[in-house]
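Quick bug: Rqc2 homolog RqcH output formatted oddly.
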Amino acid sequence: MAFDGIVISNIVKELNDTIVGGRIGKVTQPEKDEIILTVRNHRTNYKLLLSSMASMPRLHLTETNKTNPITALNYCMLLRKHLIGGLILSISQPNFERIVVIEIQNLDEMGETCYRKLIIEVMGRHSNIILTDENDMILDSIKRIGAQVSSVREVFPNRPYVLPPNQGKANPLTIRDFDTFLQIIRGQEALQQALYKNITGFSPQMAEEICFRADIHGSTVVDDLSATQIQSVYEVYKVLIEAIEKGDYAPTVVVDASDKQIAFGAFPISFYQNETLVPYESISALVENFYMNNAIQSRISQKSVDLRKLVQTNLERCYKKLNLQLQQLKDTEDRDKFKIVGELIHANLYQIQEGDTEVTVLDYYHDNQPKTITLDPRLTPSQNATKQYDKYNKKKRTLAALSEHIKTTQGEIEHLESVKYALANALKEEDLLEVRQELMETGYLKFRRSKSKKALQKAEPMHYRSSLGHDIYVGKNNYQNDLLATKLSNGGDWWFHAKDIPGSHVIVKADGQELPDVVYEEAAGLAAYYSKDRESPKVSVDYTLKKNLKKPNGSAPGYVIYHTNYSLMVAPSLKGVTLVKD
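Here's what came back:
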């Protein structure tokens, strides 16, 4: 995503307008790579989020409340010591890099005035949050980078802070004339590459936008451009830089036909001609809205790595076991032939002599065709028949046992697939705690008692409202599915579930009243959307009254059976329903 120097310059302007001159009243660290500063200014409390998460580093004002750990982390305690009560003097962006420096004035332990710098580097997996003193000596950082990790630049306490190498790029705010601009981009590179590889703070997206506004294809080699074309590129570039210098930003999100946010920028991105541009008044509101769901999912994904690996390992084991069982089952398909041979031997005992190695008889199972049967000369004719019956009975017993084993294995696979689905769709840490608890109770994890307060919290099913005002509840995991199917619904409510695939239980509160057709369609769309086949164009959804559901004794969480139901083919969709924030 284009969290480039231009977006950061917009954020810096917004922060200068809101929190510069304010005092830091609170410092929290809800995650190991995330800091939130609460700043009081203009009689308003602002929360500044600083994230060094490798997948989506960022900084912006936020309105989201996050749960903090019971015991503060060491870096958080250090920041509290140096920053709480501090006055924010300035916020700057050195050399238009993806770096923000917050200068803070405070009092030290002796009551003397001191100065600190909080430096946020927004650089992918190299992102960091660094605290220095007034002499640019590092006090500590959220990620320590020693000499064994980087030979270019150490980020370690009691080391001098130096800016990351700029790779020879030019600061766009210092390019004041056409000749300088031309000298910087000239060469055999494509125009788009020449712009973002040689000018600090420019992303490929913004470079493409400049090419589009200049009506020149981004893949055109710079040295192949005419003087008029290069002049056109420069004029577009100059207008952009003037807007940045004036602070005349226009934060915009690009939304595709399915309402998915696919890109954003500090200025409108017009080369997405077939998409919708949605303007925002605040760059912080834009960034928070854009990253919020992705950040939550990324964080949940990190915290569920061990669970997903455990489930996948057990799934692979079950599928391997099932394949072996099915192969063994296939080996029992010829069992009847041994019974037939035994009967044919038994029916022709009169013509078989001890020591015979074979006998030819009339096979009355196949139109009295002659059939030659191989015999064991060491056995009597009667024993040869018994031997064939024994083979038949052994395979018959194997068939019966395998049928039960296969049913058990398939049930285990079905349960593990539902857990895998629940992990993929967990929205909160409480959802993960419920899945972890389920895995402990079903024997996949060793049971352990958590001392965390979070372990005591219960996640709730998602609550939607139909276009006609009906309450619809969606389970996010098997515990919530059980809760919906057994306690949070009555016999007159309607139950929906994607047919024969892992997915959420969906309950529509109806209290025995007939539902309008549109509500059936919306609830079925929800059940299809919250299923393994979300990306399919159509999904078959079963629905029935809750009173028709039955949960067998000893069955896995989330498992129910039913014998009376209707079915709908629907597209997975959230159309018509509204998420209710209880």
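Actually, after a second look the formatting is fine. The longest helix spans residues 381-424. Closing.
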